[in-house]
Amino acid sequence: MIPMPDAAAGTELTTLQPTGSTTDGQLTERYAYPDGLTDCWVRANFITSLDGAATTGGRSGGLGGAGDRALFGVMRELADVVVVGAGTVRTENYSGAHLGAGERARRQSRGQAEVPPIAIVTRSGHLDNDLLVFTNTEVPPLVLTSHNAAGGARDRLAGLAEVHDCSAGDPDEVDPHAMVATLARLGLTRVLAEGGPSLLGTFIAADLLDELCLTIAPFVVGGTAKRITDSPGEALRRLSPRHVLTDSEGYLYTRYSR
Predict the structure, then answer these.
(1) Is residue 154 within 8 Å of 116, Cβ to Cβ?
(2) Where in the chain are the domains?
């Protein structure tokens, strides 16, 4: 550890040292959810550039690398459900989750369904039937919508999705607490939130974010790209570091949780 000058007394900085490669099994252990969950544990997985851009060319995929894609797969394998905002489903052209034979076998050994469903958060319930999330999936997605939109969504998406009313006081809004309560009631307690910024901002504002897995890509982007969060108000929530990993391409893979 490196001691800081007197002006920063009480603070010590630690140099991160390489510890060798991490196997797939070790990654699964590093990213395991807490045991014995009865309520939802909300993990978010996002990527950002060095200068804080969440996208390049309007999409997050351009920032990713091989290591980021590998972790993406590990986190999907461990999750009971993947939660995504409707805007991200459209922008990133989401399909259903697709897992290999090994991933499916490990999920079965943990008592999970072979494939996690995608849960789409949409206040309006207006989703086109020909989206890949409906047409290229093994399991029907969940649609988490408002009370006033739920009936119409069930009619439009009959046979394509399972629609849930997630309103509380305001019948035109999706309440985040009602949303996670619905997922817990369905037995989907290991939650993975993949986007977008508005959804992450909602979880932060409601104090429902338990964990953030943030990949820092070795690029600067400039421009007017959004941050990983977007919400009307600020909420200062402290998380604790669990680990920082790196790879030969210079990416940093950080994990923070309550």
Answers:
(1) no
(2) 36-46+66-251
* Percentages (nearest 5) of helix, strand, coil residues in the chain: 30, 20, 50
Among the listed residues 172, 82, 89, the one whose alpha carbon sits nearest the alpha carbon of residue 123 = 172
- Give per-residue pLDDT as tens, 40-60: 999 999 999 999 999 998 888
Asked whether the whole model's pTM tops 0.85, one would answer: yes
* Virtual torsion, Cα 54, 92, 195, 78, nearest 10 deg: -120
**Residue partners of 39: CB distance under 8 A and separation at least 6:** 180, 184, 189
Domain 36-46+66-251, CATH homologous superfamily name and number: Dihydrofolate Reductase, subunit A (3.40.430.10)
Q: What is the C-alpha to C-alpha distance for residues 135 and 254, in angstroms, rounded to an integer?
A: 34
Burial of 226 (0-12, 13-18, 19+ CB in 10 A): middle
Dihedrals φ, ψ of 62, to 5°? -65, -15
Quote the tokens at residue 90: 């459209």
